[in-house]
Structure formats: C-alpha cells, structure tokens
C-alpha cells in the first residue's frame, strides 16, 4: 500500500479554477511513480481519464487522428507524447510543444547482482546519471521497475510493472569512530562502497555455476544471477508461479521515505525525483486542461512530450535525441485539411513550415538560491522557491533562451498573471544543460528553457515549492491555448 503523508495545504496553494489541489495531487503522483515506467503509466491513466485516445507507432494513423481529437503515444513505456488537434489545423500550421523527462539519477540493479561479503547478502548496483551519491547512504531503499515474464496463455514475453514498496536495502555509512575525518571530506568508491546490503547471507549461499543436466541457456538463469529472496518478492507481487517465470527485468532503487508536503506552512515538497517529475506533472495537467478549450477555432496543435534518458545524455531510442518527436511531427504534418491521410502524403515542405512556426518550451527544474551557499550564485540571478517559473539563460547555448522566446513567454505570463524569475550561472561555475539544445538543433524549432526552482538537485531527497506547481500549470495552459494566435505577432 502506498504511504502518502498529506497535511492541510494553505488556500493560496490550492487551485481554485480547476478544483484540484495540485500539491497533494503531485505528492500522490510522486509516491506512485518510482520508476520511469511507472511515471508513463500514471500519465497514461490521467490522459485516458480525460478522454485521450492511445495510438501505436507500429500502426498507421490514417484516419485515426482527426480535428478536435485528443491522443497520446508511448515508446518503450518510458517516454510519452500527447497532443490535441485544433479544429482548424492544417499542415504547415504551428505546434505548441512542452518537453520534460521521466528519468532521475538513481542506482540500478546490475545484470548479475548477487553478492555476499562478511556474511551479508548484498546487491550489485550501477550508478545512473549524475547523482549526489553520498545522499543515498543510510536511507531506507526499495525497488521498482519493470519485469518481463512469459505469458503462459499467449506464449508472448510481456512486461509488468513492479514496486516492492518496502524497505529492503541499506547503504550503511562507516561509524565515525572508525573514520574520524569523515566530516572533513566524505569520499568513497562508487563500485565497492556504494553497495547496498539486503540482509544476512544464508549458510552455503553461493552464486555458483549452473547445475548439470539443466536445459541449455545462453545466459545464466535469473535465480543464479540475482538474490533469490528479491526474486521471491517479485513473484509474490506479480502473482507468478515461480522465479522461473521471470525472463528479465530493469529495476531501480528508490528512497522508501514517502514524498510529502513540508515546511511551517506546507510551502515545500520533500521528495526524490522532483527533477524532473515536476515538469511531467505540470505539463500533463496543463494539456489536460487546455486540450478542449476553444479547440474548434484552434489553428495549431497542442503537444506535450516527456522523454526518458535525459540524465545520461538523451541518446537512446526513446530519448530526446531520438526520432520520437520528429516522427510524430512528421505524421501530424501529413494530415490533410479534412483530418485524413492516404497513401499519397503531402509534400515534405509542410513539416519544415510547421517547424519554423512552432515553439518548444523545454521544461526542467532550475536552481533555487541556497541560503547557506549564496556565494555560488550569480549575484543578480538568485531564484527563490515560491517565486514562480525560472527562465534559464546561457550565452554558450547550454540553455536555448533568446530574446524572441523571452518576449513570447513574457506575453503569456502577463496574460496568465504568472511571475517569472531569471537565472544565469556565475562565470566561475559549471553549467548543466537540458533537452532544449538537443531538440532545437534536431528540429530547428524555436526553444526556450525554463523550470521550477528546487534545492538539492540530484539528491535522493530534493526540495521544491508547493505554490510553484499551479503557477507553471497556468503558464503552460496559457501557452497551449494562445500560442498559435500570438506567434505571428513576434517577428524574427
């Protein structure tokens, strides 16, 4: 059962128009989204609840996508694109796009994870992304992800979501008595000292070779490669017959402590994965709210995309650097004025016209000023939690923001009455990047980078702002609803 710690949220932090308490809804979303696969599953459920129709990349969309329709498509069950088509859409018209990512820095279970040392059962893990790994020590850790099993009815290999949702693992720190310098500098080996313990090793437990006379297998059996007790938990969770039903899995570790509202007035959200489930949540709710608004007169398309693998560079079949978004844009740009498609597609130049007229809001979280390290920030660019979305700017194009984009977003924010903040990294500090530069260079679509401010970015436990959720939803909703009419007014 999910453990959701909720307290009363102040009236200022409650969405009035939609009747949705966004901070509490976000906490629920976080507590049920412990892996990218769970994130996309929960986003799908929200879209289905709002009458969106699922499409399949493996099939033709001829006649399936029509004016005023609402649709979504997934790839790898870890990336998702959703959109609504304007009643007056025609090829060459603009598309309003928001982009986010579903992954976060974490520890992932290795293909051969069974370990034991000094009579402890341990689990081999691999670091994923640029996490603040020392924050994982002494946290109660659980396991979630997807498991491939063989469906005995169809004979097909199918994936199932699994969330063991109990404290299973721990990466203990060394007692200060044995390391007196630990508070001066906490340095550790990520291969040998970031190794979780899962329990006490059983007598005679071995990782051993395959037993003789067993059926040949090109790879060692699951039970030989992984801790048997964890496999038994998966079997129980998925109601399988035995460990032999498991063909493979992709499992990650997460902080078992529930996401929660915090602070003296519930102004904070304490949780892992705020980077970047914050933007997945806000763009999802904004599109659901905007999908039907004045859609009959809409000349464009309103589209939300959330990609996997941003934390490791986006270069995968389902990352922002893949052909996922370009392929969807190409399909949409071949829709004829009557909403149909046939075997004689329209000239490819229509997608070029659409790309030139469209705009992409690349939304990832931003750095809130840290009161204990204020000197690390550029003196005039110190975003605060609760101050609204942060526009991120970098002269070296680590972020894609430029003046035309600033003019557009300011117009939208003025109409929606959403305060904005500006962030530039100090010249003597490194600067991260986002999916913005990747998709801007891949598609030629004008792009601006922004995001809600958080503290402890990439920690196992980050801190965000409750009030900022509704502010970003309002901004994105305004973007979806008004972009196609505002776009011709900004001449470049």
UniProtKB/TrEMBL annotation:
Cofactor(s) needed for function: Zn(2+)
GO biological process: proteolysis
Reactions that this protein is recorded to catalyse: Release of an N-terminal aspartate or glutamate from a peptide, with a preference for aspartate
Pfam families assigned to the protein according to its UniProt record, in alphabetical order: Peptidase_M18
GO molecular function terms listed in the Swiss-Prot or TrEMBL record: metalloaminopeptidase activity; zinc ion binding
EC number annotated for this UniProt entry: 3.4.11.21
PANTHER family: ASPARTYL AMINOPEPTIDASE
Organism domain of life: Eukaryota
The species this protein was found in: Torulaspora delbrueckii (Yeast)
Sorted UniProt keywords: Aminopeptidase, Hydrolase, Metal-binding, Metalloprotease, Protease, Zinc
Gene Ontology CC terms: fungal-type vacuole lumen
Sequence similarity: Belongs to the peptidase M18 family.
Protein name: aspartyl aminopeptidase
